[in-house]
Specification:
Layout: E1 6-17, H1 20-26, H2 28-48, E2 52-57, E3 60-65, H3 68-86, E4 97-109, E5 112-114, H4 116-127, E6 133-136, H5 137-143, E7 149-157, E8 166-173, H6 210-223
Parallel strand pairs: 4-6
Antiparallel strand pairs: 1-3, 1-4, 2-3, 4-5, 6-8, 7-8
Helix pairs in contact: 1-2, 2-3
């Protein structure tokens, strides 16, 4: 009798290395060594956040977590640790991961995760920027304001082999989001009249003459 798959609701993390094939073409030995070092970081952080690695293939990792908060915290920790390790390496040789995170119902057979929820996590990972994290609306709704993260709504995305659009949010560590720029204080008025030179408009209709308009404004300012 065939083994029956277990079903449960879980948080699924899918991760892979951006541009892995390019890195391997450039330096197979160096890339393999870098991947081994990164996997040591990734595997350790997954365990630290009470996660379980369900499957690995080449540069990809599939893991599950008992809570959304733990999964998101792990994703943020992975990206932070990998970025820190890559700092001394030239940008074109840096190994950067893309991560997708989804909360959904999965089938578990032989320890592996199966089902649409796994596919959605993989599609979210593919939508993430190198060094970035994409999560589903289910993850965003569940964590609310509890996570130390900032969410940018990327809207509903039609993804491969998934019938319904997936609502995607891009995630960054909250401290990584720059504070709003405050308007500069007004300068005090001078005692004597001032002259402001506004940009000149190119009325010739020829875009190649734009630099003449810019040059006239600079000449007037210089003369004044």
């Amino acid at each position: 009798m065939a083994e029956r798959a277990e079903r449960r609701l879980t948080t699924i993390l899918a991760a892979d290395v951006a541009g892995y094939s390019r890195l391997m073409r450039a330096d197979e030995d160096g890339t393999l060594a870098a991947l081994t070092a990164c996997r040591t970081i990734v595997d350790g952080l997954i365990a630290e956040h009470r996660g379980r690695i369900a499957n690995t293939a080449g540069d990809s990792v599939l893991a599950e977590f008992p809570s959304v908060a733990e999964g998101l915290s792990c994703a943020l920790a992975i990206q932070g640790a990998i970025a820190k390790q890559a700092e001394p390496i030239s940008p074109e040789r840096q190994m950067r991961f893309r991560i997708g995170l989804h909360l959904g119902d999965v089938m578990i057979k032989g320890g592996d995760l199966l089902g649409d929820a796994v596919n959605i996590a993989a599609r979210l990972q593919a939508l993430a920027e190198p060094g970035g994290i994409c999560v589903s609306a289910a993850v965003r709704e569940h964590v609310g304001t509890r996570a130390a993260a900032a969410f940018a709504d990327a809207g509903a995305q039609q993804v491969k082999n998934i019938a319904d659009p997936v609502h995607v949010f891009r995630v960054a560590a909250r401290e990584a989001v720059p504070p709003p720029i405050e308007a500069p204080a007004a300068l005090p008025l001078p005692d004597k009249p001032s002259v402001a030179v506004l940009p000149f408009t190119n009325m010739s209709g020829d875009p190649e003459q734009e630099f003449f308009a810019d040059g006239i404004a600079e000449d007037v300012i210089t003369a004044l």
